DNA sequence: GTCTATACCCGGATAGAC
DNA sequence: GTCTATCCGGGTATAGAC
């Protein structure tokens, strides 16, 4: 069996995916890890610091995966392929992916819905480079959309993907066949990205 | 000065808009209302029940406002006008509306990000009739989109609007001029709604 | 019926013994 | 490194004053 910090990380990750941050107590984690209540404070500083670390590593994995998918696409890839490479790592929940991936996307969606300051900072920092590259490639397909507006749309899609996983919308999504969800979302996202821009100022 | 339940509601509403549900303690509310800790339990049953009541009334106001805006639109209103009637009441945060409205949209965005079961139920219940009517009118402008896909897109937009108000995205939205935000969002939403559907099954 | 004081339990943090 | 004991803040339930 591994050392205490590893066991704590593992237990936290599992519980985070199962119940979400709101329903985990420090005692739950330490019990599951076979460790003492005080061990979290000693090794990580606080409960939140431990959870943040788990979320951060999930974030990192996701960005790595996005980067890899992007690198695999040919230089002349279509808009839909780009969107797919972007969306699928973010939104793997409902598809039957491997356990590890499902767990990760549940963690990320939970984290997006109640972001700690540390995660918010991490998100902004990591989003910048990868998403910039993604947006550069996307923008070739929609030259009529100004950079700032494309950035807003991209942010809005990120927000939507994160929030759609929350309980508030679970009921509304129940009607959508799970295997169709990703395709339908991609179609919607492509439409939003290619929309006519609002322009510099609405005079009428 | 009004009775205790009113003072509690008022204090809760103010604090909810100022700090969000996560950063309010029962004692904060009762102190602000000049009431005793136990008064919340007596009048509302629990802290969550009080907060839910505030959120519910904000939700009701918003739906009333949406209904009113929709009723004002001529029968042959364009898609953009419909979207505007839908979006503006939901997303009044950054615009300089009256105090009451700004407060209300902050409360709703906060509630969407960490919905209690009661709010989730209320949301689904109230959303159905109003949004159905809205969707009926929208769908006339996009006859090529199947009802189920339109419903998904509508849900996704709702999710995006709610999440965009959270702290996680505040930094990313900082670049967008506040007075342009609504127009740019409307343009994006219209594009997403009019997108080509994914179709019944993607064979290629 | 209203309201208050208070006691209880849970959860996170931490000091200090080992 | 690990554990126990303890503290403190937060939500809740209740007994009793008015």
Notes on the protein architecture:
The structure is a homodimer of 204-residue chains. The first copy, chain A, has 204 residues and is mainly α. Chain A has one domain: Tetracycline Repressor, domain 2 (Orthogonal Bundle). The first copy, chain A, contains 10 helices and no strands. In chain A, helix 4 runs antiparallel to helix 5 (79-90). The longest helix of chain A has 26 residues, at 47-72. The model of chain A has no long low-confidence stretch (mean pLDDT 89). Chains A and B meet through helix 7, helix 8, helix 9 and helix 10 of A and helix 7, helix 8, helix 9 and helix 10 of B. Chain B binds a DNA duplex (18 and 18 nucleotides) through helix 3.
Please outline what is shown here.
The structure is a homodimer of 204-residue chains. Helices cover 75% and strands 0% of the residues of chain A.
Please name the CATH architecture of chain A: Orthogonal Bundle
Name the beta content range of chain A.
under 5%
Structural class of chain A: mainly alpha
In round numbers, the mean pLDDT of chain A is 89
Helix content of chain A: over 70%
Residue stretches of chain A low in confidence (pLDDT < 50, at least 5 long) are: none
Number of domains of chain A: 1
Number of alpha- plus pi-helical segments of chain A: 10
CATH-defined fold name of chain A? Tetracycline Repressor, domain 2
- The 3D shape of chain A can be described as elongated
Oligomer: homodimer
